[in-house]
Every structure is written in structure tokens, then in C-alpha cells.
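Appendix B, example 12.
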Amino acid sequence: MTVSNDQSTDTVAEGTGSIEANLLGYLETRTKKSWDPELDLFAAGGLSSLFAMELVVHLEKTFGITIGGADLRLDNFRTVKLMGELVRRLQGSAAGVAGE
């Protein structure tokens, strides 16, 4: 096992889990059910289109991102894991634009 002293790697790893943990907590609070990060929320009956829009607002406010256009595809919101990937990608895009 390799241990890195690179704090940015540690922060990314912590951020990865914290995004999913936040989403799971939000879903559990709103639905009163526990969810698996890789479960298809729509197929399981966990999300309606109205709740999906509430989730978009939650993601935008909580993680300081803007979700629009092609990113509003249903496939980005099927699982907690996919939503976490979307948030990280949009945060990375925002950081790239801010650094230019």
C-alpha cells in the first residue's frame, strides 16, 4: 500500500465520499428510506420528475454548481454514484474556467 503526502489527493478522496454521503443523507431524509449508491433510483420508484428537479436544486446549492443543457439528462441522475460523478465533473469544469 502506498501512502501519499499529497494533500490534494486526500482532499479529492474525501470529497468523493462526502458528495455521495450528502446525497444519500438528503435522499434518506426526504424519502424515509435507505438507498444504495448504485441503485437505479428511477427504476426503484425513488424519484419522480418533480423530486428529480428538487434534487437538481439541492445539488446546485449544496455544491456550488450549475446543471443545465446536456447535463440534465436522466442518465446523470439514475444513481447516487452517477450524481456524484456529475458534481465532480462540473466542479472540475468550473475550476478550469476560473483558472483561465
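Helices lie at 7-31, 49-63, 80-98. The two ends are 36 Å apart (CA to CA).
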